[in-house]
UniProtKB/TrEMBL annotation:
InterPro entries: FAM173A/B, Methyltranfer_dom, SAM-dependent_MTases_sf. Residues 265-291 are annotated as: Disordered. One of its GO terms (biological process) is methylation. This is SAM-dependent methyltransferase. Residues 1-31 form the signal peptide. Residues 282-291 have a biased composition (Polar residues).
Length: 291
């Protein structure tokens, strides 16, 4: 069975195990997992590399996949996949699913579980989540520890805007969840990876002689944005800016003080484009680049 002897002995590791098991006590009472098969019977709380194994109860798995709105179009990756139950549940919804698990016995068990379920759209690999490439995922699922979630946070935030992330029980530090569901003492948390839009932008509305160029300044803390737009001689704060994944929406005042609604798609790559809807409902295309 795979363990990390050094971390296993360390005080920090014991603290982490204690925290997880403490946080998991209600889950243990809820969960009625099928623990292993004839070839291997894992024990709840057995050591893992960075965190012990405890399976997510079925109702929490369902809530996580519901919040992420997993469909057959998605590629779902469970980080620290244990006996494979989250990835298998995602595959049952038709998604392509994948689990990364450090313990080879658990990997073998999860493969047998998938085979018994007759699923061909789920794979498992033995590996360390901190050394694995899962950038292609549309949905990431986690049941780790707060410290591990925070260590993963910059990697998750670099994933494509709109990637959905759902965690059983533990948060992401100061990256607030978009949704939390409480389930009989357990929590399912959900985030959407926001585009990186912080900074100054030059916005061009339309083309040709009637094109207008505006200045947009955005301040961002994860999915929360605020900002200002300079439109002619008017410099005004954006009204009700919202950012979900790569979709940025806000209202700005034009030079005449009229309200214009901007609906944009933004990437991490310093590009933004979309539609601006004027006070009379007229629509014009715009593009924006970092200035
Ligand atoms: C709390 S269990 C969650 C299992 C499963 N995701 C679920 O929710 O039912 C965490 C799992 O992560 C595995 N794990 C711990 N550190 C890991 C690492 N660095 N890379 C891959 N797996 C790891 C453990 O072996 C364990 O199976």
């Amino acid at each position: 069975m795979a363990t990390a002897p050094v971390s296993r002995r360390s005080a920090a590791w014991k603290l982490c195990c204690g925290a997880l098991l403490l946080g998991l006590a209600p889950a243990l009472s809820l969960a009625q997992p099928k623990l292993g098969d004839e070839a291997y019977q894992p024990e709840v709380g057995q050591p893992g590399k960075d965190v012990v194994w405890v399976p997510t109860p079925d109702e929490v798995v369902k809530a996580m996949l519901d919040m992420a709105q997993v469909t057959s179009k998605d590629y779902v990756v469970d980080l620290g996949s244990g006996d494979g139950k989250i990835a298998i549940a995602a595959a049952r919804r038709g998604a392509r699913a994948h689990g990364i698990e450090y313990n080879p016995d658990m990997v073998a068990l999860s493969k047998r579980n998938a085979e018994r379920a007759g699923l061909k759209n789920v794979t498992f690999v033995q590996g360390d989540i901190f050394e694995s490439d899962f950038r292609d995922a549309d949905v990431i699922t986690l049941y780790l520890l707060p410290s591990l979630n925070e260590k993963l946070r910059p990697i998750l935030l670099d994933m494509k805007p709109g990637t959905r992330v759902t965690s059983h029980q533990f948060d992401m530090g100061d990256w607030m969840p978009d949704e939390v569901r409480e389930l009989d003492g357990r929590r399912a948390l959900f985030w959407v990876v926001p585009a990186k839009v912080q900074g100054d932008w030059s916005v061009q509305i339309g083309t040709g002689p009637r094109a207008e160029t505006l200045k947009l300044s955005l301040t961002q803390s994860y999915q929360k944005v605020s900002g200002r737009m300079v439109w002619g001689t008017r410099d005004a704060a954006l009204d009700q800016p919202s950012l979900r994944g790569g979709r940025l929406v806000f209202t700005a005042l034009d030079a005449n003080g009229q309200r214009n609604r901007f609906e944009a798609t933004a990437g991490h790559d310093g590009r933004m484009s979309g539609t601006v809807i004027g006070p009379n409902g007229q629509r014009r295309n715009f593009t924006a680049t970092r200035s």
